[in-house]
Amino acid sequence: MESVTKRYPDGTVAVDQLSLDIPDRAITVLVGPSGCGKTTTLRMINRMVEPSDGSILIDGMDIRQQPVNTLRRSMGYVIQNAGLFQHRTILDNIATVPRLLGWSKQEARARAAELMERVGLDATLAKRYPYQLSGGQQQRVGVARALAADPPVLLMDEPFSAVDPVVRKGLQDELLRIQDELGKTIVFVTHDIDEAVKLGTMVAVLRTGGRLAQFSPPAELLSAPADSFVEDFLGADRGIRRLSFFPSGRLELQTAPIVGIDADAAKIASRAEAPYLLVTDLDGKPLGWSEPERLTAGAIDRDQLIDHGRPFLPGTDSLRTALDGSVLSPTGWAVAVDGQGRAVGVVSQQVIGEAIRAAHGQVAQDLGVKAAR
Ligand SMILES: Nc1ncnc2c1ncn2[C@@H]1O[C@H](COP(=O)(O)OP(=O)(O)OP(=O)(O)O)[C@@H](O)[C@H]1O
């Protein structure tokens, strides 16, 4: 987008000289307060709204150089409340665009069935009508319909705003999974900064009047908000949320404080220096903490153990999850597990704190290098 401005006939400037370099095969999120011009920006990309000034290029070509129908066919469009055709079955809703493109009914329905599976909809829903589906299921249908003709670009306007937080999280995870498989160029509008940070490869924060406040990867947004508007918009627990982008894989784990529930007296005695021991079942899965002097060899009482909090997977989970585990555990130690849930080590809040400080230092250094360039 090159200096794109939209002035509506009544004089409202919805978007003001917006320039954005939207990366392909990634998710770019437009976020900002109500009325800041997000929807207008999105609709200018598929020419539902024409810019008053500036130009929009895709792969270097001005979008005005091709017929509007050709342009729109290359772009799936998903809106809040899915916007499904109420009188068509789910399968036919999804098959709409392939049918418009001249596919046979059979081909279009086969494609629709494939997409239902891809977006996590059970095949038994195919014959139902939209009103017979939950809000979350309807949104999945909306996504499947937008993907039906396999467009390279997907425009999504607050697609998950109308569903409850749990369903919303499921839809977000599903979108990330689908994106991993399909690699579309997605422009996603939301007013929810957490959604933006979770989904975006790049996040454009807009302020009222359609002006760009910041355009950054989410980790950078959280680390270095451009000004007080962005900082306020990011909210109070920015520091904690930022930890989601720091990996936990390099945390130094201790294995000495781990003992099996069948541990004998000698073993318990050999570990007595640790303030707490993590007791595991015979498969190695964590059961809880205990102070070594409280453990009776051969007869460890599960009911006496202290809750071990939520374990984390080193390498997969972030430092935020590790810290959360340590905060939830009354001992202040977090438990690391493998994919099977077996304890592979434990780590203290102090060590996590050191890792956080090191990660902050690294980010500051990276940002410094970038600023100097
Ligand atoms: N057709 C129109 N005519 C005049 N003004 C309009 C028109 N459409 C939108 N606007 C105005 O343009 C501004 C931006 O609207 P837009 O819908 O793009 O914002 P938004 O960021 O998507 O808002 P929301 O989060 O509330 O959906 C608002 O002030 C809005 O009132």
Automatic annotation (TrEMBL):
PROSITE patterns reported in the protein's UniProt record: ABC_TRANSPORTER_1 (PS00211), ABC_TRANSPORTER_2 (PS50893)
Domain ABC transporter, first and last residues per copy: 1-233
Database matches in SUPFAM superfamilies: P-loop containing nucleoside triphosphate hydrolases (SSF52540)
Alphabetized InterPro entries for the sequence: AAA+_ATPase, ABC_transporter-like_ATP-bd, ABC_transporter-like_CS, P-loop_NTPase
Transmembrane segments: none
Keywords: ATP-binding, Nucleotide-binding, Transport
Domain of life: Bacteria
EC class of the enzyme, as a word: translocase
Organism: Streptomyces pluripotens
GO molecular function: ABC-type quaternary ammonium compound transporting activity; ATP binding; ATP hydrolysis activity
Record-given protein name: ABC-type quaternary amine transporter
EC numbers for this chain: 7.6.2.9
Gene3D superfamilies in the record: P-loop containing nucleotide triphosphate hydrolases (3.40.50.300)
Family per similarity comment: Belongs to the ABC transporter superfamily.
Pfam families (alphabetical): ABC_tran (PF00005)
